[in-house]
Structure formats: structure tokens, C-alpha cells
Specification:
The protein is α/β, with parallel strands linked by helices and about 375 residues long. The protein folds into two domains: about 170 residues, Rossmann fold; about 180 residues, 2-Layer Sandwich (Dihydrodipicolinate Reductase, domain 2). Helices cover about 35% and strands about 30% of the residues. The protein has a seven-stranded parallel beta sheet with strand order 3-2-1-4-5-6-17, with helices on both faces. Strands 10-11-12-7-15-16-18 form a seven-stranded mixed beta sheet, with helices on one face. Strands 8-9 form a two-stranded antiparallel sheet. The longest helix is centred in the C-terminal third of the chain and has 18 residues. The chain is globular and about 55 Å long. The termini are far apart.
Length: about 375
């Protein structure tokens, strides 16, 4: 039994802590004590501890007794928190999905003899793991990931709910989207190239450009075409574009009756209840990962993985928390069992390239009812 500390008791962080507590001694931390107590009431064997990760000295001291750190803090805190964990010489699995490039910390992690597996969720995460594995099996030319979390009940106008704050969702809608076409990196506005896509069990969804490729732009430069698109119910994109074009996402303060108001702050406040996913509200995660290339005999091959996961009523765990969190807990257990021990910062594609690691992820998730269905097409 290992000692694990989880930083962040949000919907995903708490799900990870509860999953890890089945085999390990787990301490869950957060700045909010009522949030911690709420999770403790769901899983009594958890230890809880109030902790502000921005207090660097306290954070580094707190981490010392633990064998592994799981970082699930909000994205805007992620990079500095990860840097501090590495400086404290602690191995870490990170799902904070910060906008900075985690590979900038690779040399520091090597110097500190630390293993850091980052971006370890559903997407980024499992799509990278699949890509890394098939990059070893095929001479790849194409990679595409379509992914989205959706409420089961469509509520007009946005037909959307999120397990995290509106500002993190809006970041997806405002950050320029990078993708690779014919070997060239192209940057477009998010929400562009909207297309309709059919999914079994859901029907028609719309996909749009989002900045989800992250590390693979740098780790897989030999793949000519790479794209990640976000999925929503039809109509969502049009409403978001209206808000965006009207200035509701602007960060420059405006004067409203003598008071300086940041439009983005106002929008997030208004949308918080509209987009907030209820703790027992049913939602689904849909993902389709497609890789294309040639096998060792030169035969054109397409491999498609489809995921359709739903809220688990038995454990009161959201699908997004399951699909994101259990990928990270798979990585945690895999690391603790010695399947991956390289030192440095590793995005999931550099872990999934190893067949034992890839198989571990797949079987761990399947044990928890998260099943990636594979289709292989050859010509």
C-alpha cells in the first residue's frame, strides 16, 4: 500500500481519490474545507487536509511523506503547481490541463529524478495513449480525435452542462485552435470548421476546432495530418458565437453605471448555474479516435476507437469524472507497480507507446465499465 496525496477535491479529483483509496492510503486536499468534508462523507477511509497550493513552502513540506502526487488543481494553477511538485522531488500524475507547455519542465524533472505523467485524462489523455501505441504499430499519416461531454437532458438554449467552471469551458472557445495539415501547423479561431457527425446512441452532434492536440504537435511531428475537435449538440456553437462576437468573453473592463465590469467575469457568473452539472445529473462522454497509416506490409490501415460512457448511478460518479479520473488513476497504479519508470515529463503518448502500459490502461478502464470499442479497416 502506497501513500498518495491528491491535490484538488473537485468532481474529478474526488473521484480519483475514492478510486485510489481501494488500494492505497489516500489524503485528499483542497482549499475548501466543506468540499473536503462532503467527499469524506462519501468515502470514510479518505484522509482530508486543507491546503492552499499557492503557498509554495507549505505545499512542498506537505508533499514530503507521500509516494505519489496526483495534481487536479484548476488549469490556471497547474503549471506552477506541477513545477513546485517536481522541485519537491515527488513523482506526479497531472490532469490540470494548463495552457503552458509541460515539456518545458522535462529537464528539471530529470535533474530531480522525478517521473511526471501529464495531460492524463480522457482527451487529452486516452486519445494520446491510443496514438502513442499505434505510432509503434503503423507508419501513421493521420490522427483525429472527436470528443465531448454532454448532458443527457437537452436544456435550451445551450444544451450543455460542465463538471467544471464556465471560465474553463470558455477558454476552449477563445483559445486559438492549432492543427496539422499536410505537415504544416495551422492556427484558426476556435469554433470554426463546424461539421455534423453521427454517433450511435446519441445521434447527430456538431464538431468544431479546439486547441486539443497539445503535446503531440511536438512529440509526433512526422504525422502529416492531426486534428482534435470538440463535440456539442447541434445549435450550441451558434449561440456561443453570438456571445463571443458580442463581446461577452472580453477581458477588458467596461464601465457600467460607474462600475468597472469585466464582461468575461459577468458572463461566467450568469452562465454558472446554466452550465453547472448537478452532482447526480446524468451526462455522457462521447469520443472517437481515428488513426490512419500503413502496416509493416505497406497495407493501408485505419483504426477507430469509439467511447460512449454514461453517468454511473451506482457510485454517483459523472461520466467525465470517470473517463478523465480513472485514466489518471490507471497511470498512478501502473507507475506504482513499476510498469513505467522513466524520469522526466511525459505526455500520455510517450507512455502508451509501450505495449504493457497501453494494455494496462485498457484493462483498468474496462474493469470500471469504461470500454473503448475498436474497429480496424484495411485496404
Amino acid at each position: 500500500m502506497s501513500k498518495i496525496i491528491v491535490l484538488g477535491a473537485g468532481m474529478v479529483g474526488s473521484a480519483m481519490a475514492i478510486d485510489l483509496a481501494k488500494k492505497h492510503e489516500v489524503t485528499l486536499t483542497d482549499v475548501n474545507t466543506s468540499t473536503l468534508q462532503h467527499v469524506k462523507n462519501k468515502c470514510n477511509q479518505l484522509n482530508i487536509l486543507q491546503l492552499d497550493v499557492t503557498q509554495t513552502a507549505t505545499l512542498k513540506t506537505t508533499l514530503q511523506p507521500f509516494d505519489l502526487v496526483i495534481c487536479a488543481v484548476p488549469g490556471f494553477l497547474g503549471f506552477n503547481t506541477l513545477k513546485n511538485i517536481i522541485e519537491a522531488e515527488k513523482n506526479v500524475i497531472d490532469i490540470s490541463f494548463f495552457p503552458e507547455n509541460a515539456l518545458e519542465l522535462h529537464e528539471l524533472a530529470q535533474q530531480k529524478n522525478v517521473t511526471a505523467i501529464v495531460d492524463c485524462g480522457v482527451a487529452p489523455g486516452m486519445d494520446n495513449i491510443i496514438l502513442g501505441y499505434y505510432n509503434e504499430q503503423l507508419q501513421l499519416t493521420d490522427f483525429e480525435c472527436l470528443v465531448g461531454g454532454l448532458p443527457k437532458v437537452k436544456k435550451w438554449p445551450f444544451c450543455y452542462k460542465a463538471p467544471f467552471s464556465p471560465i474553463d469551458v470558455i477558454e476552449e472557445y477563445t483559445r486559438p485552435a492549432r492543427y496539422v495539415e499536410n505537415g504544416e501547423m495551422i492556427t484558426k479561431e476556435a469554433l470554426t470548421d463546424c461539421e455534423y457527425v453521427e454517433f450511435d446512441g446519441v445521434g447527430t452532434l456538431e464538431s468544431f476546432n479546439s486547441d486539443g492536440l497539445r503535446s503531440i504537435i511536438f512529440t509526433m511531428p512526422h504525422i502529416n495530418n492531426m486534428k482534435e475537435k470538440t463535440l456539442r449538440y447541434p445549435g450550441h456553437v451558434e449561440y456561443v458565437k453570438v456571445l463571443k462576437s458580442s463581446g461577452f468573453f472580453d477581458t477588458k473592463p467596461i464601465n457600467v453605471k460607474g462600475t468597472a465590469v469585466v464582461p468575461l467575469d459577468f458572463t461566467c457568473t450568469v452562465l454558472f448555474n446554466e452550465w453547472k452539472l448537478g452532482e447526480t445529473e446524468e451526462e455522457i462522454t462521447v469520443m472517437r479516435v481515428t488513426v490512419k497509416g500503413k502496416d509493416k506490409n505497406g497495407k493501408a490501415t485505419t483504426v477507430i476507437y469509439n467511447l460512449h460512457d454514461e453517468y454511473c448511478a451506482k457510485t454517483n460518479t459523472s461520466s467525465m469524472a470517470r473517463t478523465t479520473g480513472y485514466t489518471a488513476t490507471a497511470a498512478a497504479n501502473m507507475f506504482l507497480e513499476g510498469l513505467f519508470s522513466e524520469k522526466g515529463v511525459f505526455p500520455p503518448e510517450l507512455v502508451g507507446k509501450h505495449e504493457p502500459c497501453f494494455n494496462y490502461f485498457m484493462s483498468y478502464l474496462e474493469e470500471r465499465g469504461i470500454v473503448y470499442k475498436k474497429t480496424v479497416l484495411s485496404s
